[in-house]
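re: that chain from earlier
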Amino acid sequence: MAENHDKTVAVILVGGPTKGTRFRPLSLNLAKPLFPLAGLPMVHHPILACRKIPNLAHIYLIGYYEEREFALYTSALSNELKIPVRYLREEKPHGSAGGLYHFQNLLLEDDPKDILVLNCDICCSFPLSEMLASHHRYKGMGTILVKKVSPEVAREFGEIVADSETGELLHYAEKPETFVSDFINCGVYIFTPEIFLAIQDVCSARKDRATLRRLSSFEALQSATKFVQTDFVRMDQDILSPLAGKRKLYTFETKDFWEQIKVPGMSIRCSSLYLAQYRSTSSELLAKGDGKRGATIVGDVFVHPSAKTHPTAKIGPNVSISANARIGPGVRLVNCIILDDVEVKENAIIMNSIVGWKSSVGRWARVQGGGDYKAKLGITILGEDVTVEDEVVIINSVVLSHKTLSQSVQEEIIL
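^ sequence. v structure.
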């Protein structure tokens, strides 16, 4: 049995509904972390990666969604993984570091040696074991997963300058206006419990400044004193930037895939990355078919066991089909996500698209996107319970829930 000081706890930051607006309409009736990528909820992929860490004592999800949104999921997952998985709800946003501090007593209950912290809205191979080994060699307060990207991409993220030999974090700049580095912060961290002292220092300094402002004669003349939330602490600007160059933080580079999931189109991109990863990690999740008893399968495809696919359908590459979907004769599916209870009727074609829960695509209909995952209308999205009638063509459009489309549309947002 492992000693207490060898234990690790994992924290996955899931955010909340006020931050999920760019993911609509897919997040209107489902918390974004539960949206399926390659057949599994978005948050499930980092959870499975954490589960592989030896002596993992607990997995916590921290966010400000209502508890009911995660209750069934965490309960089932705890039983499946044989390890406690618990959702901790913030009554208000505290920031990526402030959320940790808010629940520090719970996070330290198991007396962990290390604390894994992962953002939920990223897609990568999560090389946590290798990263943990480097973290122990560095003997610092924390280790940050980083990746080298093009200068054009780097400016969209936190840019990192590290010592090429020691790995020490020397400088951190969050989305700088001018180029700093082509290494970016991937939103995956390993910390020792010392991180709570660093967060506490930030909170204390803010409280001191707030007190000084309240006591100033100028502030007293104002009609209302501005409220300063002293317990809202960001991981990047408030923790990483001040600690850079102090031999506290180090970096670990991944050369594998990494993407951030901010807009719905990236779901298709990330689903394809996870499906490809299944080849080496979970080949049993990939569908097989030659058009005899089930559909013809091309490339990497996930089909839920409860879904039904006609033998004359052709599916793939990069297709994920969720529970109770029905794929009819002659259907062609390419680069798409089909959600629960969808029906795709005879000879319909769906490409570069996401088809929402309980939707129906008619005979000889065509639902297609251009394939630009980051563009506003780069893919086609059908919300929940959308009906596309027979022979209707939908191109590069977003359709909100409970709509019936009897005429073809192109590059439209249908509210």
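Residues 4-260 form a domain with the Spore Coat Polysaccharide Biosynthesis Protein SpsA; Chain A fold (CATH 3.90.550.10).
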